[in-house]
Amino acid sequence: LFSPWKGRTSEILSSLPLHILLYVNGIYYIFYFLATLAMIIYKSQVFSYPDDLLAPDLAVLFLMAILEVPRLYLGFKGNLTEAEAPLGLSLGLTVGSVVLCVYQLLWQTYVLQADVLLNAVLLSAYGLESGLKVTAIAAFVS
């Protein structure tokens, strides 16, 4: 009998830990977005939030949300197809997300302890995810 797979071996290089972390990050980001939005609304009602500073804080949050969609999509796609380019682009978008997260952590108008906790968890997840992406890219290239 003819078998097209005879003599061929294929090794799966995609990373299950990366896939799981991308999935968990997607769920966590929804929680992060809603909690941060609620806190911004809370801070604007309770504290004397300057009107000219409310818009940048909201803009950063929504920019993070817009960036998160292609970041996760490219991460999933690159990992599942074992392609370096989408995973590398996702890694680049992760750097942008880290910068915006640091803004939320250090430079927004009012930073509550809940902000610190939410952003610390998100930054930790970004760091772990970035390490797994670099490892996956190295496995795909070799």
UniProtKB/TrEMBL annotation:
The keyword RNA-binding does not apply. One of its GO terms (biological process) is non-motile cilium assembly. The chain crosses the membrane at residues 20-42, 54-73, 85-106. Signal peptide: none annotated. Pfam families: Transmemb_17 (PF09799). It is found in: Cell projection, Cilium; Membrane. It is a multi-pass membrane protein. The keyword tRNA-binding does not apply. This is TMM80 protein. It comes from Regulus satrapa (Golden-crowned kinglet). The gene is Tmem80.
